[in-house]
TrEMBL record:
Cofactor(s) of this protein: Mg(2+)
The Endonuclease/exonuclease/phosphatase domain, residue ranges: 4-248
InterPro entries hit by this protein: AP_endonuc_1 (IPR004808), AP_endonuclease_F1_BS (IPR020847), Endo/exonu/phosph_ase_sf (IPR036691), Endo/exonuclease/phosphatase (IPR005135), ExoIII-like (IPR037493)
Short name of any one Pfam family annotated for the protein: Exo_endo_phos
Enzyme category, top tier: hydrolase
Lineage: superkingdom: Bacteria
E.C. no: 3.1.11.2
Protein name, entry field: Exodeoxyribonuclease-3
Keyword Metal-binding in annotation: yes
Keyword field: Hydrolase, Magnesium, Metal-binding
GO MF: double-stranded DNA 3'-5' DNA exonuclease activity
Similarity remark: Belongs to the DNA repair enzymes AP/ExoA family.
Amino acid sequence: MKIATFNINNVVKRLDNLVSWLAEAEPDVVCLQELKAEQGRFPAEPLAQMDYHAVWRGQRTWNGVAILARGAEPVVTRTALPGDRGDSQARYIEAAVDGVLVASLYLPNGNPRPGPKFDYKLTWFARLIAHAADLRASGAPVVLAGDYNVAPTEADIYQPHRWQDDALLQPEVRAAYRALLDQGWADALRTVHPDGPLWTFWAYLRNRWPNDKGLRLDHLLLTPDLAERLVDAGVDRWARGEENASDHAPVWVELDL
């Protein structure tokens, strides 16, 4: 099973990019973030023509998450992260696909900091850690995939000193990511590629893409049973170089199930 995560950065505007990548990469399951489309505008029909069935939670202008499954109907288990019934931001969706529980998440950016946006990021992260602990305790095979908006280590950013004040690199945020790993989750990309740059995001500004000045913000975390079945993982960098591309590239894992 090939499972991917892709911050599409506007699914309507970049539908052609998504379709092109799906045709080339042929993932079995795809987690999308930053749909930037309200619920009724998600392009389910053209995806269905490619045999991808979708579940999604849209939101006008910002946020939005989805799960696609090729040749299968995702069975939704959650459309929001537990822990705050008043949180209306569309940042989490969870579904079962062929015996694997898959979550698509879009963790808050947190900028500017200090301030309410950074506080919300830390609170959301704490809720994710709590829910991830419950998922681990359930014994189910789980993949937590998405844009975590955290560069976990200095090796995950091209020049850390240029981003030292950014919410993506703050000690509290990195500590929260480590807390997830300490529960027993495996960082799939780093499991397969322990060394070297693995950029998944290149900002549009200042020629960051042509100069390969990137960050690793998109992660797939696996429960131990799935980590034992991990065959390969990678980043489809070519998708970032396409016309009208998202500022993120798709990240994927292959599991021998």
